[in-house]
Prior knowledge:
4 helices
Amino acid sequence: MSKKVVTAVKKKFKAAVLDTHSRLGDETIILDRSALHEVCEFLKHQPKMEFNMLMDVTAVDYLNREPRFEVVYHLYSLTQKHRLRLRVPLEESDPVVPTLTDVWRAANWGEREVWDMYGIRFEGHPDLRRILLYAEFEGHPLRKDYPIQRSQPRMDLRRKERDSVEEYRTMHRDRAADSDRSAT
């Protein structure tokens, strides 16, 4: 069934489909970013396709290749029982794609994670901010050119951290004192 989906997308969005392939039973469409939103609307609302589940949003960094980045979407149809992978190549100088949060609400967190880890912006996202790292973190750690020994600004603690060793000692002392009192 997924091959029919690929054929339909190629027919309707001829100029936007850069390439297609099938590996290990997974159909893949490589799309130009300008048509991403329109293609996803089509895939979700077309009766024979009904890709009503966005399973994953991720990115790939090909450091020494042009285009450097790809945003990858994994779609699934709960009713038709087929899946599809969309890949959108992006140049390093302009890593921006339109958000899909208005098509699938599940895109919200996935897009935020891709922004946080790779620095790829999702134009129109309602709340594009870090999701895994603290706000003061500088850079995007899953980029292949990110220096792994890089020093980061210190994060101010919002509340006093508990010292678990001291907490254990205090609790142990209190129990020992209670048992001494009950013995006498």
